[in-house]
Amino acid sequence: LASGQQACRDESTGFLEPQAAMTWSDLENPLFKVEASSLRVLPPHNPEGDRVSQGRRWLTFGLSSIKRPQVSYLGITLSRLFNVMDLEEAPTALLVHLADFNEDWVQQTAKGLLDDFADQVLDGRLHAIHAPQSLYPLKQVPLSALALKGFKTSAINARYLRRNDLQLSGHPTYWSEKGDLFIFWCQSNAAHRRWGVAAAADLSAAQGGSCKAWVKGPSDHEVLDPRVTGWEEWTGHKWEMIEGAGVSTLELQEGELLKFGDSPQRQWWRTKQNLDYTFLMWYATNISEYYMQLEDDIQPVPHFAAAVRSYIERSLMGESWVMASFSSLGFIGKFFNATHLPKLAQFLLTFSSEAPCDWLVWDWIDALSPRPVAIDIPKDVESEIHKKEEATRQGPKALEKLGFQRDDLQLYYMAAGVPPVFRTEAAPVDLTKAMIPPNGEKSPKYPLAELYSSMAPYQTYKEDQAYPPGDPIGFWSSDTCIEKDKTDCELGGKYIQLVFRKPVNLQKVEIRQGRPGHEKDYMRHGRLQAGFDRSCKFMQTMKELSKPDEIWEGHMPQEVECLQILLTKPQWEWVSIREIRLTTPDQPGPVVPLDSSNESASQPSQGRGSREKSEPAPAAHHALLHAMCAAVAGLVAGAVGWIAVWQSQTHFELGLQSVGAFTCWALSFVFLLDIMLFLGLNPPAPPLLPEEDGMLQEGSASRRLSALPSSDESEEVTRKPCSHGVREANVRIDSRALRPGILDVDPGRVRHLGPSIDPRSVGSSSGPQKFMSLGMVADPNMDADSVAQAAVQLARAGSGQAVVALLVAQNVSIASRREQFVQHLRKKLSEAEVDVKDNLHLLDPAWSLYPPPPTRTSNVDIALLSMFLAPLAPNFMQVEPSCAMFQYYPTHIQGYTNRLDGKGIPWIVVQFTREGYLRKLVRSRLVPRWAEMLVMFPDAPADSLFWQFIDVVGNETAPKAIYLGTDATKHSRPDVKLQHPGREALIEHLGDVSSLQGKVQRAQESYFKKHVLLDTLFDNPPGNLTTNLEGREDMLQSLYDGSPPKRDVTCGGHQAKACSGCPQGHGASWCNVECMWAGGTCTAVFKTSQVMEQPRSGESWLELVFRDGPHDVEIVNLRMGGQVLPPPKCKAHDCPKAELPDGDFDHALDDAELLFGRGVPSDLQREGSGCTDYVKIHDVSGREVFWRSSSSRPVRSVRCIKIAIRRPQERPLVFRHLEVRTTKAKQSPSTAKTIKARPDQLRLESMPLRGLARPAGIRHQEQVAMSKTDAWREQHLEWVLIVSVAFVSGAFSGVMGCLLNTVRPMKKPRRPRQV
Prior knowledge:
Oligomer: single chain
Largest sheet: 9 strands, antiparallel
Number of helices: 28
Helix content: 25-40%
Number of strands: 50
Structural class: alpha+beta
Strand order of the largest sheet: 12-11-10-9-8-7-6-5-13
Shape: globular
Distance between the termini: 96 Å
């Protein structure tokens, strides 16, 4: 439970005791109950971990990871991300959610992250969290029955019926039709969680926690699904895996359906993924200003972080937006301001079971957008009806071509032959929504300008990426007059221009050309010119350009409005302008903070009212005030000193003459000044070293959102007492605490004022359920008689088939008038006929349930009304308080819905009007979803919000809201910004295994079929890769360094000199047999089946021996097995099969060792070995093996890397990747130094390979101590300067006193009296 809260603890479960909602705080985001820091695994929960976890960051990258069979991408993905983040100056962090329910895996992975990324954890740059399974509101799709098949015992292969009255471990049981067997969920401990089939006689044992069963399902598979395999059967003496056995069919409960054609397992999986991201975003809310969603199996380009920052500064600052997208890959690369994360996390939590996250996010944006697209759903449905009518007239073939048409929305107002229902016209709708506030302010660092170029850009390297500076892409062009008329350049036809929005006073212009790998792509004959009008017709030459980097400094005669870079002569080389930097006299500093320690600079771009406010840094005038006080103190002390001297001349002449006037003044001055400085200014205390810090300072608690936002509750709310009598803090919470509060409103907070019996009271009965319920919200400013008359008319015309409820809207500004309005309504309704009164309800909600001003309250009115009426009838409709309907309207509507049901149409809404939320008949089972949407977005008009609700719960295909992304590619929108269209891709999704688990995006995107993503993590030093296994050893060498094989390779139906020549423009389909398509290219692979045999010489091996001597190794990455093939062209119903793996997908080692070797063998030892001494570093098992040196300290002086195989493997081997990173990978050529190993580092002991690098913890403590010492030095310097000011001012006072003393007449000394 979040800090600052107290609640009841359920003694039976140990968790928070659910309580009814009584205030707006209870209705608002339920995630406010979760203490975010309690989810944290890393940094550890100790004083140092708590301290570093509080650091504010500019940007957080969040990703979720689960346990995968045979593979893990987390380590290499984090390494790649830190590799590119290290190049970014602004403080960034990585946040990992270890989202698997296997607690052992979570602990093991967290320990591995702490060991491998110790520096990043101790610096607060790597956070890891884990939300326990008890927080997940996951559930099986409601089943009425299921059937089992394939088991040897025929009695088990039967149909089982659901029994809700008999549950075990929180799950329903399913009983065979004979009643002799039952299926139950066994959860005896954390390691034993599975479905089982037991005999009826063993029910009591199962209720006691026993897992005695005849059949058991696979562990941790909580969802009953025909696709889940791995069921085992007890054969009398052992458990035997039965291939093909398991669930055969599922029967859903009435009214339930699986959306998008998903299986129960897939629906459970995508629901869990939504909840994974919920807790990830909730934790990320307060650790940075911005947040980007990634996954644990991606690869970024080297300039990824810089490109993100550049786009933010260029395109997002000062603009209105809710989400920016940096990738087209599903939910990957989606970027948010952290102020929006609590609402997005709540949205994913509430609607987690409705759709995948990469669809839900668009509906969330649409709900906030001032230009929503979901409101066009009625137009789409009308268009489909018109098309169907036209196709019906054309014939059966035209109907077949129509394709899918949604049938969840039915338009009563367009149906033919139906009787009218409403007697009055519908009220006008309100679709006005507030604009999204701008994200910060546009950076004025560089003058704003439009860029134009007559040089055709190469691919996505356009001119607007050269200015403002900072974009790592830049401008690149091959249009240099060579392939065209050479006179173009000489006539001034090739240029790039900057046209400023306002005239600028230029002082300096820097032009940087060339790019890594293409350093010669710059202008040999260019000219920098300036123009003084926006037409750029009359230009003045500033400088001739002939070098990669050119700088102009000087003064222009007047302000410049146009700047031009002109190519004056043809050249064979391309032109690459990386960036253009301008310097003006009034150039401000950067907007985005670079120093996370500066709290005032790192405040969010959009204010977050619930965030704790940091104390402002001391202003400059404080130091000036201190100096002035010190000067006054010096003057006063000096003046008092002279007063003392003058008094001594009167009373102690002889003593003053013996010591001197100046000595007397100096002693008095120093004494008085010391007292004044001691009382008014204390010197700074010396810093404490980390080990002396003890506990954290008071007030340094973790930054997080306040537990519950305060609300202006005008009436006192009394909570119900706890079952054990005491409210507690630090209570554990589970998924019950995360239920939306609108689903559990305390009945006492919504008063029922008759005239019918309150249906919520115990024992109340209103007879048979009505066909429909009608709701009205009455404003106290309306005429009470007219409202009462409308409500009575609706109940009377319903003829006993409709129940009507009237809720009086809250309006605190007219409280007394509202009370009179309520009492008058109550009187009028009580005067109706008895049979009418039985179907009338008057509701008066408490003000405490509403949000404080200026938030709108109308949505809460609708939510409370709908939740009251939902249980009273299977269908719900809300109408205007002045509405009138024809007699027997429920009969007319029921006749229409019966015809729909008879045709098998799964309708959820019947529309009687085109727009808005009024006069829409909704299935009552969906009304809670509608109420949740209303409370979540209280400021959005309900007329608009209703269509977001329909888009979430009613869509049978992709939601309408995803059109936001399509529209953003064509027009500038106030809600979505897309970085990726027409630009170089920044992220690649490499997850071939995760794609099998059912993500929306495919394993290989079309972009990466043609482009290879640059990877700078590995440097792969030159070496020889050899083996003693059968197979093509030249292919082994080729896969490591790309060298051509010794003979032609077989690509499938043809051959080539090397694998790179196999595709011939046809892509992956022409890369087979001895080659494999990976990362957009055709690469070599090594295949052998000899690993399945007993090693002949005791050990089989693959070994890499470095040619240029030992290296300090940081990372080794191995990849084995086949891949998921890129999806070919397929029809809609066949496309899921495109994600199936190839035949050798699992051909990987299952029991081998990774060894590091040192020492050069002698000629006698050289046979079959590259080194003399080997040490085991890591186990080799599975498709992906990633090793990273402990504590980020490289293993010193490694000469050989060997994969040793000492026993037969279960499958053949497909070896496709070996990558190595050494310390040279992060050293530029100019700074690279030769690293020589010390003799004591060459000894092979238990852990000798870490070298003598100092532990990260000690290094971090030294850094903390240094920073504290620096701060103390600054404070001490300020103290010394202030004391010096005091002494100087005192000296001035002393000099002035001396002058006064010389002109002041002194009294003659008295002569002693003669005796």
